[in-house]
Design a protein that fits this description.
It contains 9 helices and 14 strands. It is an alpha/beta fold. The strands form 4 sheets. It has a 7-stranded mixed β-sheet with strand order 5-4-1-6-12-8-13, with helices on both faces. A 3-stranded mixed β-sheet has the order 7-14-9, with no helix packed on it. The protein starts with a helix and ends with a helix. The relative contact order is 0.18.
């Protein structure tokens, strides 16, 4: 009984920092990215990177660390005057894991959000970021992933990434052909996970694999809409799907 009462009274975590991955070349988005970095390509008139930043800010995130590389001067101009955004320039692209590793001095030593600059989701009844905060339990978790049902995603053509057990622990599909959930790009990580990380570029998937081995990799299922925006064609398709509901979605 006491444990149940404690669970009911457990306060949601407070996470004040987020890392936004924005250093990629965006080659698949050409020709739109010939003169514009992918994070600044507009979706329904709003730069891709502003979508996740606005979602995170609404949930209490007050510091955003954004890595840059390609056409970085445009990123500097876009965030000029914003005291809540810290840019971390990468002379050479370090991939997702290396990008986070190289920005840890700006991120700090507390758990933090990470998301890609083109992670586009719309919320269900409760905002996804808040649901992540509600689910985050640092006593048993070192990483928490937002997972999207493959059947409920738009524009995704892969075979899925993860399984969830009854306790919400996540396991990658490995050699299996399919999995019911894809990784939605939003996560909470602890900084210590990057201790001993490889030098040079590496994907965040290496971090997830390490956490999975300790059974401290968890996931929650996204209950809203999720869009894969990877090419000009998919961008136009997503705009067609969400244009009518953009005003409502943008104010959630």
């Amino acid at each position: 009984m006491m444990a149940k009462q404690e669970a009911r009274t457990k306060k949601a975590a407070t996470i004040e920092t987020a890392m936004i991955l924005g250093a990629g070349l965006g080659t698949r988005m050409a020709p739109l990215t010939d003169t514009t970095p992918k994070p600044l390509v507009p979706l329904c008139g709003k730069p891709l990177i502003d979508w996740p930043i606005d979602r995170l800010a609404a949930a209490g995130v007050t510091k955003f660390v954004v890595n840059t590389h390609y056409l970085a001067d445009q990123m500097v101009e876009h965030f000029e005057g914003r005291t809540d955004v810290i840019l971390n320039f990468e002379p050479e692209i370090q991939e997702t894991g290396g990008g986070v590793r190289d920005a840890l001095d700006k991120i700090g030593d507390a758990p933090f959000f990470v998301t890609s600059s083109d992670a586009i989701w719309f919320d269900g009844i409760k905002p996804a970021v808040q649901r992540m905060l509600d689910a985050w339990d640092p006593d048993k978790m070192d990483a928490l992933l937002l997972l999207v049902p493959v059947t409920g995603s738009y524009g995704y053509e892969g075979s899925g990434d993860y399984y969830l057990d009854a306790d919400q622990r996540a396991a990658h599909r490995g050699d299996r052909l399919v999995a019911p959930y894809l990784f939605g790009g939003l996560q909470i990580l602890k900084p210590f996970l990057f201790e001993g990380a490889p030098k040079g570029p590496f994907p965040l998937r290496l971090i997830y694999n390490k956490v999975q081995e300790t059974e401290r990799l968890y996931g929650i299922t996204h209950d809203g809409e999720w869009y894969h925006v990877g090419t000009p064609e998919s961008l136009r398709e997503v705009e067609e799907v969400i244009a009518e509901g953009y005003t409502k979605a943008n104010t959630r």
